[in-house]
Specification:
Length: about 140
């Protein structure tokens, strides 16, 4: 399923679209119980450097010796905060899907269970995660044929 829209309602009632107007991404569920999700903020700008070059500069301790690497490093940090990705197994319990995270961009998610209420409406799946602070996010995914 392809990302369609993402809306966040904070605990104080404010609405926002943290992943932009038209987020990019996919979520997939297999019949044998595996899933993956990747979601990226729309409108990302190129970093201007391949990740391998930036990684090599970091390994060689050259990252702070050139504005080129410093600028790319800052852009890379900004870009990575605009991406959510993880995979693992899943199970459905009533109107909740539980994602048992095995690998994730955010290491803190590995080994956790992410619970999302879900609703199907024709070709759209809406997942609604809640966090401990009262924030609620609606993630709408349109089926790709």
């Amino acid at each position: 399923m392809e990302a369609e829209i993402s809306r966040k309602k904070s605990s104080d009632g404010r609405l926002s679209k943290p992943l932009g107007e038209h987020p990019l991404g996919y979520v997939s569920y297999t019949p044998d119980g595996f899933m993956h999700a990747i979601l990226i903020r729309s409108g990302q700008k190129p970093i201007g450097m391949l990740p391998e070059e930036l990684s090599d500069a970091l390994s060689a301790k050259k990252i702070f010796m050139s504005w080129k690497y410093i600028k790319a490093g800052l852009k890379y940090i900004k870009t990575t905060t605009a991406v959510m990705s993880y995979c693992g197994t899943y199970e459905v319990i009533d109107n909740t899907v539980v994602h048992h995270v095995k690998a994730a961009m955010a290491p803190d998610w590995i080994g956790t269970d992410l619970k999302r209420k879900f609703v199907f409406n024709e070709n759209t799946l809406t997942l609604t995660p809640h966090d401990d602070t009262g924030n609620v996010m609606d993630l709408a995914w349109e089926r790709v044929f």
